[in-house]
Request: fold
Amino acid sequence: MNVSVVFPYRGTTEDRKRAFRYVYDHMESMLPGAEIVVADDGSPTFSRAGSRNKGVREATNDIVVVCDADSIPQERPILEAIESAYDNRLHLPYTHFLSLSREHSAKVLQDGARPLAGKPQFVSTNSVGGVLVMTKDAYFAVGGQDEGFEGWGGEDVAFAFACEALLGPHVRHSGHLYGLWHKSDMNQRSKQYKTNIERQNLYKRYRKDPEGMRQLLVNLNVA
Reply:
């Protein structure tokens, strides 16, 4: 299988560790023979963008499935995305992101319950993170993910905007992506988060302007 699964991961809490073990086993079972890369870029504050970039650089296969350590994708849309990824665009193997409650997540992890067995606490049809499928070449054609985003917030949306400008609109494959509960490190009132959103909005400005996006990536030291 010419596929590498990349996990950006730092096991800081027990709930994150439990989620990661479940997702790791799930992906290993769903994609037998795929290379699995677990990456932490070592930054003082965990950088999902930096860790994703490190993992994709270390991957030895043409197609990468970049999977957050708390995200459970379904098999059919993942396989469809892998099969389609040679068009060098960003593929999202879901149309609905379902965030599971703490209680529902505990049941999934402890009893092996199917993620769809309970009602999610939050549903999104706009999410562009969690699991990304694309060729390694396409990932770095947009400079990889912007490591100027500190902590959490904004990096997924910015990356999707960069891909839209330089690779074409992302492709969704019908299905669900389940997010396991863990204590959030994101503080939407923090200065760091607000700075991230300001940076994300720079990408939004050039989402339909390839030349403008290329110059932005150079200015931000991404490409």
User: Anything to note?
Assistant: Residues 14-30 form the longest helix (17 residues). The chain has a mean pLDDT of 92. The chain is about 40% helix and 15% strand.
